[in-house]
Amino acid sequence: MRLIRTVVELGCRTRKMALPSSFTLPSDAVTRALVSIAEHAEDAFRLAAIETLAEMMLLDIDLVARTGGMRVLLSVLAEGPEEFAPVLVTTFLYVIDTPSTRAYLNPGTDLEIALSGITDAYGKGEAHTERMTACAKVVAAMLRTWSGLIYLCMDDMQAIRALIDTLRIPGLATRDVVLDLFFDLLHIKLPEWHAEFIKGRRLTMYGRQKPLANQPQDPTDSGPSRDKLNLIDHYIALLVLVFTNAGLVEALVTILEESTSSSKIARKATLLIGEVLQLANRLLPLAMAAKIQTLARVFNLATDYTDGHNRIVGTSALSSVDSFNRNRTRLQPNALNNSRQRANSVDEPVRRGQRQHVENRIKLGMQIDDRAFQALLLETQVLTAREHMKWNYDSLMDLIEGPMLNPKRLEEALKVSKFGKRLMLFFHPQTRKGFADMKRTKSNQKWVKLGCTLITTLLSNADGVRFLQTDDPFLKQLADALNDIDPTRGSMSADPTFSRPRVEETLTYGYFEILGTMSRYPEGLELLERFRIFTAFYRLSELRSREDLVRLIIEHIDYTQDGHPRILLSKALTSSYKHVREYATRHLGHLIHTSTRANSWMLRLLLTQLYDPAPEVCELAVHFLREACEDREILQLVVEMQPTLDHLGDIGHPLLLKFMSTPVGFHYLYTADYIDREMEGWFHERNKQYAVQIEIYLARA
C-alpha cells in the first residue's frame, strides 16, 4: 500500500509541476486490487484504498472508471463511512466541473445517489437520523458551489424537487433534518426567540433590544446601514428562486395542512415560510418577489368554502405567518428597516393611519368657533396658573397644532388674551423656575417638543413672526445668553444660562433644538440674522472649552437652505481642534446618508476633509465617501469633481477602485497615470506582498 501511495504521489507531483515525463499511474490490475479492498467493509486497509482511489480519479479518471473504482466511490458517498463524504463530494464536484471528466458520470443517477440518505429515509426510524444529518452536509456542500447547483438543477431541477418532496412525506425526523438544511443553505440566522415561537409560547416577555448606554460605538457609524448586497446575497437570491420554483413554499404548506398549527414541526415550517418571504422581499427583483409573496396555495385553501377542513388549515396558516411577521417587526425592527419596505411591511399602514388621524384633528381644530376656542384656552390652565406643572400639556399641544394655525385664532391668542405672552414667558432664559431651570429628565423632554411646535406655529403666520420680532424678548434674551459665555466680550455672569453644568443637567440644551427648528424656515433664518444669533454661533465655534455647544449647534441646525448654516458647518469642518473636525465630519456623513438626493455642496465639503492633517479625519471622510458612492448618481458627481487622492496612500485605494466602475472615473484615473502606476506596482512587488498576505490569512484560517 505504501508503494502504491508513493507511485500516486509522484504522479501528483509530476502533474502539478507540469514536467514532461513518461511516468504513469499504477496499472489496471493494481487499481482493481485497490477497488477490491475498498469494497470490503471489514478490511483494515479499506480507508486507505478509498482515499487513494479518490486521488487517482483526479489524476486519471479513465483508469478509475474502467476498473470499477467510480462505482465504489459513489457507494461510499451514499452509504459511508461518513468522515469521507466531504472529501468525496469535493472530488466529484471537481469531476463535473469540466466537460471532459463530466462525461464519466450518468446524469440523474450517479451523483444523485448522495441524496439517497434523505430521499430513501421513509420508514427507517430514528436510527437513520445520523446518516440523514451526514447526507444533509453533503447536499449543502454541493449546493454551495456553482457546479453542484447547476448539476442538481438539470432535468427541470429533478434532484432538488426530490429533496423538497421529502417534506411532503409524514416523517418527523426527515422533515426536521431537511428544514434545518434549508435554514443552513439560506444563511438564516434564527432570532433568540425562535425556540419559544416553535414551542408555541407567547412572546410578550421579549421586548425590543435597547443599546447599552455605555456601549462603545463605531466611530464611522453614521446611523442605519444602507441596504448593501454582497456576492453571498446574490447567491442566496438564486437559491431562493431555485427552491421556490421547485415547490418549497407549497411543500411547507403541505406540512401546515397535515399538522396542527400548534405542533413544533408546523411552527418551524411557518418560521421558514416567513424567512423565505423576507429574503425574497429583500433580494429578488420586484416581479419575482411579488409572485412568491402571493402564497397562492394558502389563499386557495383559506377561501375554499366547500371544505371546512381546508378553510381552517388555510386561515390557520395565514394567521401563523402573520403572527411571525408581527413578532419579527416588534422584536427585530431593523430586520424590516433594511429591506425595501414592500408589501409585507406591517408598520406602514399603521403609520399612515396615524398621520391621517393627526391631519384630520388639525383640520377640525382650525374650524372651531369662538366659544370653543375660549374654552380650549381655559382648559390649558395657562391663563389661570403661572406654574407650568399645573398646565394641561395635551390641551396645549392640541391648541398649538390646531386652532392656532388659523390666523384669526393666533391673533386672538397673542393680542386679545394673555395666553401667548404667558406661554412665551415660560421659555424665556431669564425666567426663574421656567423652561431653562427644569431638570433634564425623560419626562421633561415633552417641553422641548412643545417649544419647537410653538415656534413652528408662530413662523407659519405673519402675526407670529411679528410677535417674535418686536413684541416678545425671547430671541433677544437668547442672544444675550449666548454672548454671555463669550470670554472675548468682557466679564461673564456668575451663573450663565449656557454654562456646561446647566446644559448637561437642565433643559437649556433644548434652546438649540428650538433654534434649529427656526433655521428650517426662511422667516426663522431672517430672525436669527436680525438678532445676531449666527454671529454668536461663529464665536462659540472657536471656543476650545465648549465643544459641547458646538456639537449641539452642528447637530440641530438645518442645512436645507444656503447661507449661514452651511458656513457654520464648513467652519466646524476646518476647526483648529481635531475632535470638532471629527464630529463635524461624522455629522456631514450622516447628512449625506439620510439625504434623499445627491447634494454637490455636501460632497464638496466631504472631499475637503480628505486633505485634513489628521489621519483619523481623512479615514472618516474616505469611509463616508465610499458609502455614499454606492449610489451611482453620487459616484458620478464625485468623479466629476476630480479629487486628488494620491496623498492618502492605501486608505484611498478602495475609493479609487470605485471610480473605475464608471467610464468617466476610468478616463480620469487613466489620464492621471494612476492605472499605469498600479499595474507597474503589481508587476514588480505588490503581487508578492499579496501572496504573503494570502498565505498568512490561510495559516490563520
UniProtKB/TrEMBL annotation:
Q: What Pfam families does the annotation carry?
A: RasGEF_N_2, RICTOR_M, RICTOR_N
Q: Which residues form the Rapamycin-insensitive companion of mTOR N-terminal domain?
A: 2-285
Q: Name one GO biological process term.
A: TORC2 signaling
Q: What cellular component GO annotations does this protein have? A: TORC2 complex
Q: Where is the Rapamycin-insensitive companion of mTOR middle domain?
A: 368-594
Q: Which family does it belong to?
A: Belongs to the RICTOR family.
Q: Which PANTHER family match?
A: CYTOSOLIC REGULATOR PIANISSIMO, RAPAMYCIN-INSENSITIVE COMPANION OF MTOR
- Protein name per its UniProtKB record: ARM repeat-containing protein
Organism equals Exidia glandulosa HHB12029
